[in-house]
Amino acid sequence: MTTETPQAGHPSGRTGTSYDAIVVGGGHNGLTNAAYLAKSGLRVLVLEQRHLVGGAAITEELRPGFNFTTFSYALSLLRPEIVHELNLVEHGFMPLMMPGDFHPTGDGDYLLFGDDDDQNVEMIRRHSKHDADAYGRYNYDLDRVIQTVRPLFDSPPPDIFGTDPEDQADVAWMLKHLGSVDRKTIHDTVRMLTGSAADLLDDYFEYEPLKGYLASSASIGNRIGPMAGGSGLVLLYHKMGEHDGHLGSWSFHKGGNGGFTQVLARAAQSFGAEIELNAHVDHVLTRDGRAVGVVLADGTELTAPVVVSALDARRTFLELVDPRELPDDLVDNVRRTRYRGTSAKVNFALDGMPVFPGLEGAAPFGGFLNIGPTLEYLERAYDAAKYGWYSDKPFIDGALQSVIDPDMAPPGKHVLSCFVQHAPYQLKGGDWETEREPFADKAQAVLEEHFPGFGKLVLQREVVLPVDIEAKTGLSEGNIFAGEFLAPQMYFFRPAPGWSQYATPIEGYYQCGSGTHPGGCVIGSPGRFASQRILRDRRA
Amino acid sequence: MIRTTPFHARLTELNDQQLYTHWSGYLSALRFSHAPKHEYFAVRNAVGIFDSSPLFKYRITGPDAMDFLSGIVVRDLGALRPGRAAYTFWCDDRGFVMEDGVVFRHSDNELVMTAARPMLSWLESHRYGARVELEDVSDDYALLAVQGLRSRDALAGLVPEVTELPYFGLAESKLANVPVTVSRTGYTGDLGFELTVPSADALTVLDAVLEAGRPHGMRPFGEEALMTLRIEAGLPLTGVEWHDSRTAWTDHDRVTPKELGQGWMLKGVRDGSRRFIGSEAIRRELVDGTSRWATTGIVVDWAAWDRLHRDAGELPTKDEQALGWEQWLRDEDDEQVGYVTSFCYSPVLQRHIGLARVRPDLATPGTTLHMETTMHHSTHMVAVSTAALPLFNPARKTAKS
Q1: How does residue A6 score in pLDDT terms, banded at 50, 70 and 90?
Q2: How does it assemble (chain A) (predicted)?
């Protein structure tokens, strides 16, 4: 599969120089936004700087027959509304269910979680009878928290600083919703949003590797360890993922997330949106305080009364427009937004299935491979990042995608797409040019330790550091969420207080990237909410 | 005593659940792994195998074989050349459906027919001097369905005939030196094949298929996954969509081919040019327009489904496991105008779907109806639209190659 060829019948390219709306950035949110605007009858142009759409959600055939999900590697938070409203199924939308999570416990044993709760409980009982029922309580309590935050997640944030009746009504709705939740769940919610994953897990469990397994998603994408306050929030986001309504279950889109963004592009094009590739936007054109179009790097001017930035806040407010046109407090807030990318990807083309000692030939794993046996392991992997260096023993969250989707690799071969943490954007006392391969060697050594003979299976290795993520996708400092998941950077503070409703101080200039609520991961809501805001403003 | 199929010894090794149901006196796996959804996806996205051996199989040979069977089954077998197969129903003399099966024409005078229930005495009782031999060969052959996106790729190295086989074509071949019949048939609505194998050599064939399928993500699937697949494919199931007319107590449980959505099989019935058991009753039904029901697909309004659950404080369920009961369909005036016979969430369509029977005037695709469902122990309605069957119909199912 190649994701570089646009679908026949929908050639990419631009037919004019004047549009109703121009979307800067062809990542999944830019495409989602464009699709909605086009569906509402607007003439829309998406400008993508690279030779393919998808942003951080792409699939690339780096070796004949081997497809790499270069950056994001799974799908779970995409909102079902988007699937339906944009008719994505007609365009090939196909989320496959991840088979399960395989978690070596570091002592030669393992935890294997799948779709059957009873079997998961039995897997835990093998190690700790105490944790068997705690697991059910933990899941239930977290699901309650998710039910509490989901309506907030699934609607644009209220403007708590707004004074008009509509804003006040939004705030009243939010308070009424929170007021309807029982006090235990509210308390659990606050503990999750502000506390550490470790504290939360310690309340339920005694078996360290189980805590390690559950905490693995508490640091993904953030420069944070599971013992630090705030890691609960990261954990919550990943726990909110679902496959067909099953919370905590993850999907893998056919053909990877590049397969998914191709589906989105086809949907957008079917509504009439145009997509121009290799089009680097230099800046947004403004006149008398309102956006009137964009200027490409080659000097081409394109006009539109609506310009939507799908880029992160730093680029949206400090690069695409002149920050001197913006209020100081907004610029200050954008400047101090934390990015600090620390997630690297190390992706492998493999000659066969990795083997776990004792499970030779059985290979019960085949979805996520999670290497971060205990909380302490995860925390120590983070420690190095605090001091500007990469982990000696990194934590790895890998997905053996070819087991789920045989089209990802030639028959009998496999691709393993790994998040590896921590690899800080900036090294202290060294540079990534020198450290790139040594870092990847550390990651591979960890895999070798748990799957002896792993190295002999490696046909090709792709190392994607935060600096590469930034260079290729434009995500500042390579932060995969377009701004870290920290309480002061969420909800009505995302991307900045007073500017969380997808508009900007420049009339006609909007934001629809993951830097806005509800944030990073392949959710699509920023693109959708922004389109609702744009259409509402047009009607006003 | 419960029996096991010729494939059982190997398939049971691959089954880490050991959950079985009974099918015609045989153990039949409900699922092989912790989530039947993976087995479902194996078919839609890779390749799955299903043990259909419990089907009854009858060999019909002799110079009158074609004429004999043409007078029994609903389908027009006139165009069934050697090397082709046909899906059909058969009816009682009142034109009510008894059972369904597939007729394989191996040669001019040799047919094999599968059936969900025993039917030898019924065939014999309608022989009327025809020069045919009727033989129950059910125990002689095992039946392995190899279904899904990669089924052709997985089998191509073992049975090269699959690369050329047209939809509902069949060929005699050898697989691992075992004589097999390979047919492009199945019950999943996908690209797929079935292997009819001498029972004694079943494991040899199965092992070769498993080996060839491994690099293609092959996995066995059970009845639970099959149910989701066949609902998406719009394929009716005996005992669910209809009841064998011979054993139904009242006409409420009986259904005619037309009512079952199989009107396409009835060529030559209205003008009386084709005769088979029940054809006269069906002719009258067609001429007088007395069909009580029409069969249709239904697709649930996703927003209504989500709203119903969220307003009730529940997470919207999206369960691909088929419901085990019927649900009523009502019109705008709250009058019952039909019922849903099979219902599940379709992962590939991302919608709740069903097979339903509605008053014939309401079967036009796109008609809005309301389906009863329960929430918090009381009745609620969700909007559904009628839709043409099959609801999932990939081009690869019938494509040449």
Answers
A1: very low
A2: Interacts with COX5B; this interaction may contribute to localize PYROXD2 to the inner face of the inner mitochondrial membrane.
Measure CA of the first residue to CA of the last residue in chain A; give whole Å.
45
Pair (B49, B66) in one structural domain: no
Q: Which of A87, A365, A404, A413 to mutate to test the interface with B (most CBs of B within 10 A)?
A: A404
CATH of residue B18's domain is 3.30.1360.120
Domain boundaries, chain A: 21-94+254-337+482-539, 99-249, 343-422+424-464
Residue of B nearest to A353 (CA): B215
CATH number, domain of B351, equals 2.40.30.110
Residues B215 and B265 in one domain: no
- At residue A115 the predicted structure's pLDDT band, cuts being 50, 70 and 90, is confident
Q: For A105-117, what is the mean pLDDT?
A: 92
Q: Are residues B25 and B163 in the same domain?
A: yes
> Which among A94, A114, A116 has CB closest to B348?
A94
B301 → chain A, closest CA residue: A84
- To test the contact with chain B by mutation, choose from A78, A85, A93, A115 the residue with the greatest count of B C-beta atoms within 10 A, namely A115
> What percentage of chain A has pLDDT greater than the value 90?
90
Annotated binding site of B: 194
Integer-rounded Cα radius of gyration of chain A: 23
Give the model confidence (pLDDT) of A46-85 as tens digits. 999 999 999 999 999 999 999 999 999 999 899 999 999 9
For residue A35, the cross-strand partners are none
Residue B251, in any domain of the structure:
no
Among A244, A404, A406, beta carbon nearest to B318? A244
Is residue B319 located within the same domain as residue B353? yes
Interface of B with A (CB under 8 A): 33-35, 37-38, 41, 44-46, 150, 153, 214-217, 302-303, 306, 313, 315-320, 345, 347-351
Model confidence, pTM: 0.94
Nearest CA in chain A to B34: A116
User: For B296-351, how does the pLDDT look when each residue is reduced to its tens digit (9 = 90+)?
Assistant: 999 999 999 999 998 998 889 999 999 988 999 999 999 999 999 999 999 999 99
- What beta strand segments (E) does B247-335 contain? 294-300, 327-330
Q: Output the domain CATH number for residue B109.
A: 3.30.70.1400
- H helix intervals, B46-136: 65-70, 120-125
| CA distances (Å), origin A531, targets A256, A323, B224, B395 | 26, 24, 41, 34
- Residue B348: the pLDDT is 97
The answer to whether A94 contacts B313, with C-beta atoms less than 8 Å apart, is no
Q: Using pLDDT thresholds of 50, 70 and 90, give the confidence band for residue B392.
A: very high
Q: Which of A389, A337, A304, A345 is nearest to A42 (CA)?
A: A304
Q: Are strands B56-61 and B110-115 parallel, antiparallel or unpaired?
A: antiparallel
B74 shares its domain with B203: no
pLDDT in tens, B127-158: 999 999 999 999 999 999 999 999 999 999 99
Q: Which residues contact A386 (CB under 8 A, 6 or more apart)?
A: none
Q: Identify whether B227 is part of a domain.
A: no
B131 falls within a domain = no
Per the annotation, where are the binding residues of B for substrate?
A: 194
Last residue of a domain, one of B292, B311, B345: B292
Same domain, residue pair B30 and B151: yes
Q: Which of residues 78-97 of A touch B (CB under 8 A)?
A: 80, 83-84, 88-89, 93-97
Q: Do B310 and B191 share a structural domain?
A: no
Which chain B residue lies closest to A116 (C-alpha atoms)? B34
| CATH class of the region A21-94+254-337+482-539 | alpha beta
Residue B101 belongs to what domain range? 56-121+256-292
Q: Which residues contact B107 (CB under 8 A, 6 or more apart)?
A: B82
Pairing of strands A509-511, A306-309: parallel
Compare all CA atoms of chain A with the CA of B213 and give the residue at the minimum distance.
A411
Query: Is B233 within the bounds of a domain?
Result: no
Chain B closest-CA separation from residue A248 CA (Å):
13
Per-residue CA distances from B8 to B1, B26, B215 (Å): 16, 10, 22
B327 lies in the same domain as B357: yes
Please count the structural domains in chain B: 3
Cβ–Cβ gap A96/B350 under 8 Å:
no
Lowest-confidence pick of A239-243, A367-371, B30-34, B190-194: A239-243
| List of chain A residues whose C-beta atoms are within 8 Å of the C-beta of residue B35 | 97, 99, 114-116
